[in-house]
Amino acid sequence: MSREIAAEHVQAALTQVLQKQEGELPDLTEDTKLFENLGLDSISTIQLLFKLEDRTGLEVDTEELSTEVFGTVGSLTDFVAAKLADATPSIEA
């Protein structure tokens, strides 16, 4: 699955968690900080993780998480993209 799809999942989950309508989030960039710029806290971080699991079908082990994962939109997108890539079976020729 592409990184663009992971980014769409992250943006949609953030929209839900922050209870914003489509398009009401500020312009998200790779460097948008989840805590400082978007106002996430510990509760909303857990909600975000659950929303991402629901949207993608992934199950995330909390042992895999670090503060760096939830640092920026880019770091969270990288994490989701990597998890999706790991979950997608490779096709061998």
Keyword list:
93 residues; mainly alpha
Kindly estimate the percentage of residues that lie in beta strands according to DSSP. under 5%
Number of strands: 0
Q: How widely separated are the two ends?
A: 19 Å
When the domains are counted, the total is 1
- Uncertain residue segments: none
Order of helices and strands: HHH
What is the CATH C level class, in words?
Answer: Mainly Alpha
Secondary structural class: mainly alpha
Structural notes for this entry:
By secondary structure, this protein is an all-alpha fold. It has helices at residues 3-17, 42-56, 73-87. Helix 1 packs across helix 2 and helix 1 (3-17) packs across helix 3 (73-87).
Please provide a brief summary of the model.
48% of the residues lie in helices and 0% in strands. It has 93 residues and is an all-alpha fold. α1 (3-17) crosses α2 and α1 (3-17) packs across α3 (73-87).
Blueprint of the fold:
Layout: H1 3-17, H2 42-56, H3 73-87
Helix pairs in contact: 1-2, 1-3
